[in-house]
Task: inverse folding
């Protein structure tokens, strides 16, 4: 396992560059994100360690980060003051653009992966999601409907102009940006839902992670009950991500300090539990370039890169 | 950046919510708890208009007639034949023996068969709510699946008075003596002891009148009121038949200045007046309850779920503080906090005690009696609790989303009662 320590900053989100296999970004906040400022770390993974390439400061906590899908130097972060920042790793002075419309904490940012569009979606505690064209100073549209804070917004990797959101109101929603409306509201948990993600191999499959400690997998064609429910975490599930390599594999990190890897087609579904953190684990990503490698970040001031032993025996899915 | 302390508190609150979620912390439009077939649910409820005692619409109407109007209408609305009822419980305070005979007569003039049993309950101002608790208890005990909880009072025909036969030893016990303190004086005690000013009481009373007037003007009470046709003796002594459709205690023109002019009613230098205390009234209410699986098997709707209830004791000389203790007790049983509740129906026996309870519990004032309370509508003692449940569920239904509500009241001789009721959503 390789790791990097960032004193006095607590990790909220981590994401591997889609362009450069060894580059990753981590959104952090001072004082556990309750008060103080934030720092975006751009890190390089080397043979035996992780080193800091650049860091960017913002005067409020940074809670999420996403890499641009069309420019290897560009990143977007979401901040506690309700703003989004667009950063260029070649420009150390500060953000190249700040987008300020949300009235409360921005807890989620995601850059669209469908080829025809370059849009960013943001989810906020002000109960709204906004869609942005990073070239323009104003949002393209604002989507209202959630009755609680939004913790997670993720573009569909398959359907253009479609994203999912997870909220404190206990619903998972699927949105159609072209129509500007909510297509589906699924009462997925009887608790706040903190994270959602799309399966990379099936456009109808989504997963949710919630305060009720469960991870659920949903098929949009029949949302009356989950396809699978995975129990094991002892505290709220903070973030989930689907594997880019296996259709039925996903990982979850939690307030119980652990990261777990699941295969929802198996019984029991749990493949592995990583207990290498000493605080809440908030950020998680699968490496797109190196199969089975994962990265996470925690309030314990570290980013860790590792390969869960439970994943190495798996055979990759074909797209 | 220096964050405002409210933002810091909010972030702390969000994280702590993730770590120890309260059952209803998330507010969902459509996410529902799985329905337990053993739940005690409320199917339907109605009330009569509330009349001003001795001068109002029901001054010549006996309580069995008021009771019969609501008993009949509740069953008729949902198409249930009365022989399906396992029991009928009626809250009443002022009739002799809490109106045990009156209730049985009400049953027969409503056309209920003799095979249906009935009894009355008197826990003073909470009697109407106690009737719900009793019917719920009968359902939980497995005695029956469907029951009717009612409340009725004619304060025109009976007055609060003779407490009955009491031991002379009551003088030896301070608490026993305090049970005989007039209610108005207990209100003065609350105001004095907890510093509830005349201004606060009048302003609360004024807002109760305005909220009730607004609700009446918008027709919000029409869904919960069953019109009552009854006899009425006019000022010339002529008897007429009238149909009453509206509460007659509401005074839309109430102003703070007008309330401020009223003289204290119970104590020379006191702060409780006729304007900031509940009105003396006549009325009845009925609520059909059942075990969920029986209700659903009969194809009846589920309007509410009784989630928890509590009755607690408090000092008799400040009996008005009862809700401040009963509400937390009931919420705790339901696993909820004040924040989880959308509407509180707290009986306005006196503005002094409601203001005290609301402030003590930190309830946002806009959640309290959104359509006014007993100061404007009136407080027919035995009816009130059942009336509040009917008003609460209609309000939650109007808001159109799953939510929790609380019904609470203070009780003479020093008690408080509270119920937590869930509206399951449309």
Result:
């Amino acid at each position: 396992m390789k790791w990097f320590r960032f004193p006095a900053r607590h990790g909220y989100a981590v994401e591997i560059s889609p362009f450069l296999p060894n580059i990753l970004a981590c959104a952090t906040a001072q004082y556990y994100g309750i008060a103080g400022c934030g720092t975006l770390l751009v890190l390089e993974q080397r043979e035996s360690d992780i080193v800091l390439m650049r860091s960017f400061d913002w005067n409020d906590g940074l809670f999420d980060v996403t890499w641009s899908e069309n420019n290897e130097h560009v990143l977007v972060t979401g901040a506690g003051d309700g703003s989004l920042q667009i950063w260029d790793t070649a420009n150390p002075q500060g953000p190249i653009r700040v987008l300020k419309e949300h009235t409360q904490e921005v807890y989620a940012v995601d850059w669209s992966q469908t080829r025809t569009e370059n849009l960013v979606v943001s989810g906020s505690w002000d109960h709204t999601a906004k869609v942005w064209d990073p070239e323009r100073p104003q949002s393209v549209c604002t989507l209202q409907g959630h009755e609680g804070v939004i913790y997670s917004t993720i573009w569909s990797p398959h359907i253009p102009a479609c994203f999912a959101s997870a909220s404190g109101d206990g619903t998972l929603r699927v949105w159609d940006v072209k129509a500007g409306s909510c297509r589906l509201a699924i009462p997925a948990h009887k608790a706040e839902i903190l994270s959602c993600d799309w399966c990379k191999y099936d456009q109808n499959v989504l997963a949710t992670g919630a305060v009720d400690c469960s991870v659920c997998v949903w098929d949009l064609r029949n949302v009356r009950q989950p396809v699978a429910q995975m129990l094991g975490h002892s505290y709220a599930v903070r973030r989930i991500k689907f594997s880019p390599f296996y259709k039925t594999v996903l990982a979850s990190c939690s307030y119980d300090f652990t990261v777990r890897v699941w295969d929802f087609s198996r019984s029991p579904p749990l493949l592995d539990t990583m207990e290498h953190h000493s605080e809440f684990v908030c950020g998680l990503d699968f490496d797109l370039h190196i199969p089975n490698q994962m990265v996470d970040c925690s309030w314990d001031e570290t980013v860790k890169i590792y390969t869960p032993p439970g994943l190495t025996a798996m055979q990759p899915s074909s797209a | 950046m220096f964050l405002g302390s409210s933002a810091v508190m909010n972030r702390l609150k969000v994280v702590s919510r993730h770590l120890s979620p309260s059952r209803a912390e998330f507010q969902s439009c459509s996410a529902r708890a799985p329905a337990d077939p053993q739940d005690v649910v409320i199917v339907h409820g109605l009330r009569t208009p509330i009349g001003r005692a001795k001068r109002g619409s029901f001054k010549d109407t006996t309580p069995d007639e008021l009771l019969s109007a609501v008993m009949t209408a509740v069953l008729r609305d949902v198409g249930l034949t009365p022989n399906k009822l396992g029991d009928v419980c009626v809250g009443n305070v002022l009739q002799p023996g809490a109106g045990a005979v009156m209730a049985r007569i009400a049953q027969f003039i409503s056309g209920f068969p003799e095979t249906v049993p009935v009894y009355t309950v008197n826990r003073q101002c909470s009697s109407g709510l106690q009737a719900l608790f009793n019917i719920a208890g009968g359902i939980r005990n497995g005695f029956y699946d469907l029951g009717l909880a009612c409340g009725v009072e004619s304060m025109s025909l009976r007055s609060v008075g003779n407490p009955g036969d009491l031991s002379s030893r009551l003088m030896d016990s301070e608490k026993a003596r305090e049970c005989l303190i007039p209610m108005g004086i207990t209100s003065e005690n609350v105001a004095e002891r907890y510093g509830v000013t005349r201004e606060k009481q009048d302003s609360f009373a004024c807002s109760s009148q305005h909220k009730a007037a607004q609700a009446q003007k918008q027709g919000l009470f029409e869904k919960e009121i069953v019109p009552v046709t009854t006899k009425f003796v006019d000022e010339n002594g002529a008897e007429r038949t009238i149909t009453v459709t509206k509460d007659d205690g509401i005074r839309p023109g109430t102003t703070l200045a007008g309330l401020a002019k009223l003289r204290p009613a119970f104590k020379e230098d006191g702060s409780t007046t006729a304007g900031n205390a509940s009105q003396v009234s006549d009325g009845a209410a009925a609520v059909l309850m059942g075990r969920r699986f029986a209700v659903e098997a009969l194809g009846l709707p589920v309007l509410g779920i009784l989630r928890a209830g509590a009755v607690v004791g408090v000092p008799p000389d400040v009996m008005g503080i009862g809700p401040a203790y009963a509400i937390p007790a009931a919420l705790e049983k339901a696993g909820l906090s004040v924040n989880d509740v959308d509407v509180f129906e707290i009986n306005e026996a006196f503005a002094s005690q409601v203001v005290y309870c609301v402030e003590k519990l930190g309830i946002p004032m806009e959640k309290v009696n959104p359509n006014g309370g007993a100061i404007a509508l009136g407080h027919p003692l035995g009816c009130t609790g059942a009336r509040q449940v009917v008003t609460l569920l209609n309000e939650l239904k109007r808001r159109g989303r799953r939510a929790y509500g609380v019904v609470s009241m203070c009780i003479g001789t020093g008690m408080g009662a509270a119920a937590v009721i869930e509206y399951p959503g449309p």
Remarks:
- The longest strand of chain A covers residues 50-58.
- The CA atoms of residues 157 and 278 of chain A lie 33 Å apart.
